[in-house]
Amino acid sequence: xxxxxxxxxxxxxxxxxxxxxxxxxxxxxxxxxxxxxxxxxxxxxxxxxxxxxxxxxxxxxxxxxxxxxxxxxxxxxxxxxxxxxxxxxxxxxxxxxxxxxxxxxxxxxxxxxxxxxxxxxxxxxxxxxxxxxxxxxxxxxxxxxxxxxxxxxxxxxxxxxxxxxxxxxxxxxxxxxxxxxxxxxxxxxxxxxxxxxxxxxxxxxxxxxxxxxxxxxxxxxxxxxxxxxxxxxxxxxxxxxxxxxxxxxxxxxxxxxxxxxxxxxxxxxxxxxxxxxxxxxxxxxxxxxxxxxxxxxxxxxxxxxxxx
Amino acid sequence: xxxxxxxxxxxxxxxxxxxxxxxxxxxxxxxxxxxxxxxxxxxxxxxxxxxxxxxxxxxxxxxxxxxxxxxxxxxxxxxxxxxxxxxxxxxxxxxxxxxxxxxxxxxxxxxxxxxxxxxxxxxxxxxxxxxxxxxxxxxxxxxxxxxxxxxxxxxxxxxxxxxxxxxxxxxxxxxxxxxxxxxxxxxxxxxxxxxxxxxxxxxxxxxxxxxxxxxxxxxxxxxxxxxxxxxxxxxxxxxxxxxxxxxxxxxxxxxxxxxxxxxxxxxxxxxxxxxxxxxxxxxxxxxxxxxxxxxxxxxxxxxxxxxxxxxxxxxxxxxxxxxxxxxxxxxxxxxxxxxxxxxxxxxxxxxxxxxxxxxxxxxxxxxxxxxxxxxxxxxxxxxxxxxxxxxxxxxxxxxxxxxxxxxxxxxxxxxxxxxxxxxxxxxxxxxxxxxxxxxxxxxxxxxxxxxxxxxxxxxxxxxxxxxxxxxxxxxxxxxxxxxxxxxxxxxxxxxxxxxxxxxxxxxxxxxxxxxxxxxxxxxxxx
Lengths: 308, 526
Known about the structure:
The complex is a heterodimer.
Chain A: E1 3-14, E2 17-28, E3 32-36, H1 43-51, E4 58-63, E5 66-67, H2 72-77, E6 79-82, H3 94-103, H4 110-119, H5 135-147, E7 153-157, H6 165-182, E8 185-190, H7 193-199, E9 202-207, E10 210-216, H8 217-224, E11 229-233, H9 237-248, E12 252-255, E13 259-263, H10 266-278, E14 285-288, H11 292-301
Parallel strand pairs in A: 3-8, 3-9, 6-7, 7-8
Antiparallel strand pairs in A: 1-2, 1-4, 4-5, 9-10, 11-13, 11-14, 12-13
Chain B: H1 2-16, H2 19-51, H3 60-86, H4 91-120, H5 130-149, H6 158-180, H7 183-196, H8 202-218, H9 227-249, E1 251-252, E2 260-261, H10 264-282, H11 290-321, H12 323-328, H13 331-335, H14 341-375, E3 383-387, E4 390-394, H15 396-425, H16 428-449, H17 469-472, H18 478-483, H19 498-522
Antiparallel strand pairs in B: 1-2, 3-4
Helix pairs in contact in B: 1-14, 2-11, 2-14, 3-4, 4-5, 5-6, 6-7, 7-8, 8-9, 9-10, 11-14, 11-15, 11-16, 14-15, 14-19, 15-16, 15-19
């Protein structure tokens, strides 16, 4: 696999406070990499250093083989992205904003602008002034701007902010298509685990300025399968436990006065429900408790991940 | 380079969509026409006011004034008569008698003149006209003749005779002129008298005769028509005479504190000034009349107002150029573009210079249009300068353009200052506010500088090296100095040379530019 973005021993302090502490990270072409961490963990600071807003105190950033420091313009030419909210010139139309950005890159024809505008679904309103756009529309134009010059590395900071569920799904599809079909390295930051699980191939967890863990999606799903705890509410938990003792002995993690906790995957849960109902045990409800993956993340990050 | 040009093009697009730019330009254009109209109006008002004053002839109050002067002179005459009657024949009293007799004759002459003035309707206490000069001169000439006649007959020679004849001739001439009212005849008669005066040196004679000729040329009415114009002519004659004397004696007579020796440079400057004045006189474009003065102040107001608006435009644009993008966040789309920051900086500076230069040209166009509409498109007085007595004349419009471009040097420095503040403080209000305050403060400091003592270190103040218009065009204030008498203070602050100032401003511009560029290159954008 080809490394498109290589971050090595990156550090940054604001005053005496160390915000980024020796982060090393490779992002490969053709993958969507999730940058996961609670608010204030250092996601945006790292991204800002890659994008050139902040100068690192130490470490190097190599984009598509070009060093960020030594070969600034070539490196930036292979990079596109949005930091925090997309900000454009409000008195100009979306299209003029794109044209202005295009002018700073090599050989972008106006056909390419039409293409990306259509890709993000803004063709109807691209000639309106940016100040009339909603946040979601700005996100779309921002994305169009980020991919306008066919970057090798695409970095999106909290890209789903302000998008409606349909928009999020569209964005997900666009990113996956860019990564998997056009071989772009996509780096997406978020504090939402669920979102990461849906669009990323790999996830890096950052906390207190340190990269604590990097996992592939397979590892994630392996961790998450069979690791969900369900609480089955029933007036007779002891009787239910007896019935389930056969086959599910190891799955029972606890019994309460009116409920029973089981660590099973969804298929097993179906079996449990069938067994209980065929034995006329009334089930008042089934709740999904925190998954152990999330427990693990909580442990890694000391709490602070938002679960949705 | 292509990137800088692309950035530059983007900056121009951004500025062109700014509503504040449009508003300032509209105010500038409207103001330019308003100023033209206003000063045209003021000019015609003041002209009307002065033309109603009949310079030289008397109204009722003047006549009463004159009669009371006659009455008081007659009173004095009676006192002298009683003193005379009381005198005895002692030798002491004889001497006294002779003095009193002379006083009596003078008073009689004076009364004659008052009566003559009343008869001919010439107001003696008004400003100088050739008529008042005649009336004021006659008693003196008569007294001279009486003194000459006291010389015993055996001591009288041919020179004596010529002098007496010429004095008598002068009185006859003057009396005739009072009837004919011909100023050129007066000049001729006065010049004849100067030629005949044995007490004057040849060079003094030449100077006085030239002065009279110049008066005739500048004001053929001899001061009897427009009060303001004739005053201006008198002051001009005074300045020209002072300059000529200064050059011939190598002593500066135009100094407030009195004559003082001149350095070779000062002497050269004095000669240049005279060359310019002579050129302007020869081309009939001295511009000291009220009409020219009102055109002058009209042009000053039009371009002064316009320049002020351009300063505002420059400071508002420069003061917000970086900080505004920071506060709205739009700087992001510049930072993520594949361009180095110094290129962003350079493109921004270049676009500011371009826009302000374009606004300046717009001002020049509309300013000339407004001036032409209100004061006429033709007959404008060119700007005349001289270096080593070689005279160069620049057409009025070209001079205005050049003057605006010189002013642009100042604007560039203030703009660079505002830009630096914008980068360093990242606060638009602070950058614009402080730089506007700096501009006004600088203008005040500059006007104070001129009256400060000549301390060497003052030369290193930025303000001592700005407002270069008056140093690029040292003859632009010639009209004012001529009409007001043109004395200059000495010992006061001497502004540095033009070359020094230009180098100083270049260094200042570079230092401020480097500071802001360096800060913009290094600092984090959070």
